[in-house]
């Protein structure tokens, strides 16, 4: 067993199962990007694209300084820095083939709660030209009904106090204060690049960060609006949470003792709006698409891939499955997913340049069915209050307006409501992981006596509880889930 670090990495290549390692001199790397929210997805996606460029001898001044915004990010910092920023990315192919590579594009890691001043000075330094984000859908403080910035969070309120330094280390406080320092020092602004799974993620980031800045310093907000780009992007790669089994697999198959490897599917996609303040890495040379308009791509992904994940996770979990590939080995559920995509999701989309939508849908089923990725339904069911309103509710609204079909989408919402009753069909408890868990469970507890209790939450669903076609389909699906169960409900939806 070989510990992974800068001294040992070269010796890891050429084993029984080949492990690719950085072919570039990491001592020549210089950070050009600060990334907030270093998790599995960032390390399987943006950091991987940069590693590809570096292996081609390019982007050596675009290495990553990771930043943890929350106290629990100390675990990631400790794991990565004990390995000099190195980690193993393992791609799991459907045929069982493993493809391993040590990624070397992360060179620093700072923890904001411990030393926000160090983070601010790093972001304010001229060599940092991009600040990128994977802070989850809920990390932008967007009110789901109004779309406006929600300043009620205690940490945000503390950062907004007159004269307050961002001691609470919110993303908003850090980014805006770093931009203020650059403005005051005559340093050009960095680009703020959201890599989160949100429609119009750059536009959302721009609205939220400028809204925060406006509450803190209106002149700074005006400067940000004029000078700071927030490019939109679409990101895609299924990246399950790393497990102890994954660590053991990396040790056994590659002979590497890695504190926090990443596993992912082979497929990856990144579509980026080409709008940056101070240059960017040549991402297009390693497979990313640089475009003028990201929206067709992101709507395709959100309404087909992400919404389909929601379509399989609650119904699949209630039916007794625990992994996405198990659901996609069941032809009845596959038919339901195909019908949702073809008859409810796809009709809400406009043409996507260079993409065959029918082929894309087929590829999604193949990706979901990969038995080696082992994507858990529990992961897909988590934080649904940040997902369903953004991914599935727009599909329902578009089809209601166009006279299209909504009964499959309505059944998915009903399955979420049934799932949030927190007891499965065998009477076993379900752990609800959601920032609104208590509120959701309280509403779901009234499902049987008041079938519309769950969807009357206007913050999540707006006025859907007053839409007759949705209400009819939703209440029928909820009743079927209670009386017949998830499998029979799906069978009837497919047959009907």
UniProtKB/TrEMBL annotation:
Its EC number is 1.1.1.17. It comes from the Bacteria. PROSITE patterns: MANNITOL_DHGENASE (PS00974). GO terms for molecular function: mannitol-1-phosphate 5-dehydrogenase activity. Keywords: NAD, Oxidoreductase. Residues 32-284 form the Mannitol dehydrogenase N-terminal domain. PANTHER family: MANNITOL DEHYDROGENASE 2-RELATED (PTHR43362:SF1), MANNITOL DEHYDROGENASE DSF1-RELATED (PTHR43362). It catalyses: D-mannitol 1-phosphate + NAD(+) = beta-D-fructose 6-phosphate + NADH + H(+). This is Mannitol-1-phosphate 5-dehydrogenase. The keyword Oxidoreductase applies.
């Amino acid at each position: 067993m070989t510990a992974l670090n800068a001294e040992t990495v070269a010796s890891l290549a050429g084993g029984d199962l080949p492990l690719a390692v950085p072919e570039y001199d990491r001592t020549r790397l210089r950070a050009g990007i600060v990334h907030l929210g270093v998790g599995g997805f960032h390390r399987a996606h943006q950091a991987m694209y940069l590693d590809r460029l570096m292996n081609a001898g390019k982007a050596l001044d675009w290495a990553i300084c990771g930043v943890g915004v929350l106290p629990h990010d100390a675990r990631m910092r400790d794991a990565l820095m004990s390995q000099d920023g190195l980690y193993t990315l393992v791609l799991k192919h459907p045929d069982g083939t493993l493809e391993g590579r040590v990624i070397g594009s992360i060179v620093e890691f700072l923890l904001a709660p411990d030393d926000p001043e160090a983070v601010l000075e790093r972001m304010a330094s001229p060599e940092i030209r991009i600040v990128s984000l994977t802070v989850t859908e809920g990390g932008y403080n967007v009110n789901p009904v109004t779309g406006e910035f929600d300043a009620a969070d205690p940490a945000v309120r503390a950062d907004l106090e007159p004269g307050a330094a961002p001691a609470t280390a919110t993303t908003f406080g850090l980014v805006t204060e770093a931009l203020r320092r650059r403005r005051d020092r005559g340093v050009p602004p960095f680009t703020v690049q959201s890599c989160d799974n949100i429609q119009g993620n750059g536009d959302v980031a721009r609205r939220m960060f400028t809204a925060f800045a406006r509450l803190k310093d209106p002149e700074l907000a005006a400067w940000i609006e004029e000078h700071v780009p927030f490019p939109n992007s679409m990101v895609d790669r299924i990246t399950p949470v790393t497990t102890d089994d994954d660590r053991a697999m990396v040790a056994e198959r590659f002979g590497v003792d890695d504190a926090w490897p990443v596993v992912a599917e082979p497929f990856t996609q990144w579509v980026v709006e080409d709008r940056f303040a101070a240059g960017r890495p040549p991402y297009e040379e390693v497979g990313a698409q640089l475009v003028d308009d990201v929206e067709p791509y992101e709507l395709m992904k959100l309404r087909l891939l992400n919404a389909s994940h929601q379509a399989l996770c609650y119904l699949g979990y209630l039916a007794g499955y625990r992994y996405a590939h198990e659901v996609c080995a069941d032809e009845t559920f596959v038919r339901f997913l195909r019908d949702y995509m073809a008859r409810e999701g796809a009709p809400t989309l406009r043409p996507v340049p260079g993409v065959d939508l029918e082929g894309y849908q087929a590829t999604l089923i193949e990706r979901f069915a990969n038995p080696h990725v082992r994507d858990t339904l529990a992961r897909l069911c988590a934080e649904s209050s940040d997902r369903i309103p953004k991914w599935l509710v727009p599909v329902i609204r578009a089809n209601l307006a166009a006279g299209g079909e909504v009964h499959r989408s309505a059944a998915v919402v009903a399955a979420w409501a049934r799932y949030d009753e927190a007891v499965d069909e065998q009477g076993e408890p379900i752990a609800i992981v959601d920032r609104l868990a208590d509120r959701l469970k309280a509403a779901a507890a009234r499902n049987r006596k008041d079938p519309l209790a769950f969807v009357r939450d206007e913050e999540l669903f707006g006025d859907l509880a007053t839409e007759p076609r949705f209400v009819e389909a939703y209440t029928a699906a909820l009743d079927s889930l209670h009386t017949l169960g998830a499998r029979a409900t799906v069978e009837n939806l497919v047959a009907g």
